[in-house]
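Title: Comparing notes on inverse folding

I've been comparing how different people in this forum approach sequence design from structure. To keep things fair, I'm posting one structure and asking everyone to reply with a full sequence. Here's the target:
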């Protein structure tokens, strides 16, 4: 799929395909639909970014709350979205030992208690050790700074998900 294929999608197809590039926030793809045609995937990504930036802090924190915990209940019960499932597996979240699970669980709870939203990090760009380190480090941030920091991670996750969708069909075009 290339950008002209993307521009040719109906609204329903577009939201079906891109609705989860920001976890459980199809409203974002629904919103940027009106910005078509996109000149490139980078422009589409920039529109998503701009939309997120235009939200008040409460809206941005709402986006963060749509994210599942790392190695949390959804992973254990198999109720993650397919995207999250793959990302968390890649970062080794499904092969933590019991001590690591309980440490991460305690840190996730402390983070949520402090900020009111879950700890979000681009799992694909990190490994187990880096995730633990970042979580401890970011627990020391102030709320507004941390909210911004977490939104940067949402954008990284979105970047990789977009690339996955568009690149996944590249071989058919070669
Ligand atoms: C996630 C997730 O599900 N995938 C990812 O990259 N990060 N969740 C999170 N709380 O950071």
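Reply #1:
Here's my take.
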């Amino acid at each position: 799929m290339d950008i002209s294929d993307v521009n040719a999608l109906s609204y329903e197809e577009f939201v079906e395909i891109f609705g989860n590039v920001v976890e459980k926030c199809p409203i974002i793809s629904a919103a940027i639909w009106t910005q078509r045609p996109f000149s490139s995937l980078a422009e589409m990504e920039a529109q998503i970014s701009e939309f997120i930036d235009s939200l008040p802090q409460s809206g941005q924190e709402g986006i963060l709350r749509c994210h599942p915990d790392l190695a949390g209940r959804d992973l254990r019960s198999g109720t993650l979205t397919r995207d999250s499932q793959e990302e968390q597996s890649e970062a080794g979240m499904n092969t933590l030992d019991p001590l690591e699970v309980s440490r991460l669980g305690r840190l996730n709870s402390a983070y949520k208690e402090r900020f009111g939203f879950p700890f979000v990090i681009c799992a694909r760009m990190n490994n187990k050790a880096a995730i633990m380190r970042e979580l401890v480090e970011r627990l020391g941030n102030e709320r507004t700074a941390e909210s911004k920091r977490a939104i940067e991670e949402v954008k990284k996750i979105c970047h990789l998900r977009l690339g996955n969708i568009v690149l996944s069909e590249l071989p058919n075009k070669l």
